[in-house]
Amino acid sequence: MPDFLCAALAQLSDRVRDKVARIMTNMSPGLPRLQVAVETYLEASRHTPLLRSLSLHLRSDPHYVEFLRSRVAGFSLMMELELRTLKHPFPAETARLLTAAAMEVGATETLAGKRQPALREAWLRFCETAAQ
Q1: pLDDT, tens digit, for every residue of 17-73?
Q2: DSSP label at residue 61
């Protein structure tokens, strides 16, 4: 994939990250803020089909796995920090799993072309359980 497509993906994902960060700024740390962040990410991704399409395409190409990991690392770090405020015993590991699950919800919604309410609810319940 040409570098300009990677640059486009980076720019689109940065916009989503910035939107999530703006929303989180006025919220107290903790589980509700984490849930709002993921919901914002999913909605922004759903309304930016190019972002999800490029992400899905790149994740199937071994040459771009590291690029995608670097894009996801910031999202995972945000989750880890929230889990640390909750005094979670395994914040980094749990954040990694929650991030993977959130990305899967986004990928499924992209392929379906619509929101997947049951899958989102399952993610929220998983998040609640994992944050304990």
Answers
A1: 888 888 888 898 888 888 888 898 888 888 887 877 777 777 777 777 777 788 788
A2: -
Contact 38, 127 (CB under 8 A): yes
- Which residues span the domain enclosing 37? 3-130
How crowded is residue 83: how many other Cβ atoms within 10 Å of its Cβ?
A: 25
Q: Which residue do the tokens 């796995």 mark? A: 65
Residue of 31, 51, 62 whose CA lies nearest to 126? 31
* Whole-prediction pTM: 0.80
CATH of the domain at 29: 1.10.357.10
Q: How many CA atoms lie within 13 A of 83 on its CB side?
A: 24
C-alpha to C-alpha distances, 47 to 71, 84, 126, nearest whole angstrom: 19, 30, 24
Among 35, 33, 32, 75, which residue's Cα sits nearest to residue 51? 75
Residue tagged 């990991």 (tokens):
69
How far apart CA 36 and CA 24 sit, in angstroms, is 8
H-assigned helices in the chain: 3-25, 31-46, 49-59, 65-85, 91-112, 117-130
